[in-house]
Amino acid sequence: MAKILIIYPSSSPDIPGGEVDWERYKSIPNGPLAIATFLHHKGHDVKIIDARPLPKETTLKLVEDSLSGTDLVCVGANTVQLKHGIILSDHIKRINRDVPILFGGIHAIMYPSQTVADKSIDYVVHGEAEYTILELIEYLEKKDKRLEDIKGLAFKQNGKIIITPAAPGIDPNELPLPDYSLLEDVEKYINREFSTNLGKIRKMRGLDIHTSRGCPYRCTFCPMTMPEFRGYRNLRLEKVFELIDIAVQKYNVGHIWFSDELFFSNKLKVKRIARHIIDKGYKITWESNARVEQFRESLLDDETLRVMKESGCYALRMGMESGSNRVLNLMKKDSCVDNTIHAVRQCEKYGIIPVGNFICGFPTETKEEVLDTAKLILTLKEISPNGLFFSPGLLRPYPGTEMYELCKRYGGYEEPQTLREWANRKIDVGLFANPTDLKWVKYPTWLRNFQVYFYIITVLKTHEKTGTKLSPTWKFFAKLAVKRLYSNFWGVAFEPPLLIHVKNFLDKKSKIAEFLKSTLRLDLSQI
Ligand code: B12
Ligand code: SF4
């Protein structure tokens, strides 16, 4: 029996108290939990440290305390988690150079060679990790096989980097169901919130269930288009039912988030899951991801939506992305603006909250196309006042995607050459981060101003719908912004820099700032 430590780093290691927005976006660490469950099932002693909700110092101490007798440390890494992953790996190697460290997850899959070249990393799994890690543990325990024969592995040997052939995609039905009890304190993941467009917050006891692996679509900005994830594999329905039963009966949850990248793969799956919830008499709500073009006869037709609603379908999260068909085609989204409008209408008809994400800042995207997205969002808000439509976030070009290559071409973007360069690259620019970081955008100041204007407008619209009061200062700025949007007039754009200055001033905790805050009543926290 080997002792395995699995670490899931934070995406904001510079914040002392844990990951930004953790309280709002709590989630089960599905990847690490899948691996932990599998290894535990094979008789190994596993411990997961999920660093996302933990203060910085607590993680370091926990890692230190857990290290004694550990045979292998596994670190999970999305690109945004690399920085913390490296800090923790360096820390481990300082304590004990001999503990082997393995990296897995999306970034390691995209860059196995660069990742394993790092001085603190010994192994990389470049694919789904369960069987590869198991074989590596057997190798470390008995040394009765050759590392070269373990599929899906990268390692260093005599100063050379060896990458073995990819392991085949795993059928999730071969694996044990995720054992939530392997998480330190599952309750801390369960108490959650859902906030709607109208500013209402619903508290809920929720749990994530993953019912498939992979995605067959081809969106050019998405790492799921890599060959490692192409084959779509559903978990058998009996197993999905078992997971739902565990969530409701054992953990007493009132809400399930089906966190698959592609939940709706066929009508039968959806209807049978909905039927199971209804027949069992579970009084729960649920949400999942959906694609706007799935609201069609062969998949999310009226009958299916009706049963979904009856079973508690509460919200559907959709990547609506853009109000321009040309941009949707550029990202090979395989959907169009009419699909988006239809999807939102259907959600409204069945009392399901549509949640829409949008992106701006694509290479070649024009100002007019960005405005088309803004106008689409306002139209959707009219169709579905309860819907949650996020202001367009800036494109984050993730490596390994077609869009990343396009951004490089249009922006002369220099690709990091080492894992540490990646870790320090501001890849995950926030919603209102500075568009001048996006070298391929030819009008960054305009885009920045647009984001501020649009934010003010969306707050105005929300208040109009709820009938709640908005300060006269806000109304003044927002009405001006609406005028600008519809007349496409952006001259003398004094409001965004002014509001940014005001925000910076209000953020300083002085008496005058406090006084102004209460008089102006401007919530600029999102700017
Ligand atoms: C659900 C989900 C979320 C949830 C929950 C995430 C979580 N609990 O970890 C929420 C909404 C919170 C979320 C947040 C974010 N996410 Co997310 N998310 C997903 C999604 C759709 C599914 C992940 C999942 O649960 N899969 C189920 C498990 C079983 O499969 P798996 O992750 O593929 O795991 C296998 C292998 O990848 C590998 N592996 C995975 N983890 C580990 C860990 C170790 C130690 C090892 C050895 C191996 C390993 O082995 C696993 C088993 O075979 C993925 C898409 C995807 N499939 O990865 C995006 C994805 C991972 N997210 C992504 C992004 C960008 C984010 C955010 C940065 C978004 C944002 N801007 O805020 C944040 C960052 C959060 C963080 N701290 O990392 C990107 C990552 C891109 C990149 N290059 O890093 C992805 C790929 C989406 C995409 N299509 O672009 N996400
Ligand atoms: S964005 Fe969604 S639908 Fe498109 S490839 Fe990625 S996971 Fe699949």
CATH homology superfamily of the largest domain: Aldolase class I
Overall geometry comes to globular
At CATH level 3, the topology of the largest domain is TIM Barrel
Radius of gyration over C-alpha positions, nearest whole angstrom? 24 Å
User: Roughly what percent helix?
Assistant: 40-55%
- The class by helix and strand makeup works out as alpha/beta
Total strands: the figure is: 17
Q: Main β-sheet, in a few words?
A: 8 strands, mixed
| Beta-strand share of residues | 15-25%
Oligomer designation: single chain
Bound molecules: cobalamin, iron/sulfur cluster
CA-CA gap between termini: 52 Å
Q: Give the uncertain stretches in residue-range form.
A: none
What is the CATH architecture annotation of the largest domain? Alpha-Beta Barrel
Helix tally? 19
Overall structural domain count: 3
Overall CATH class of the largest domain: Alpha Beta
Estimate the mean pLDDT confidence: 90
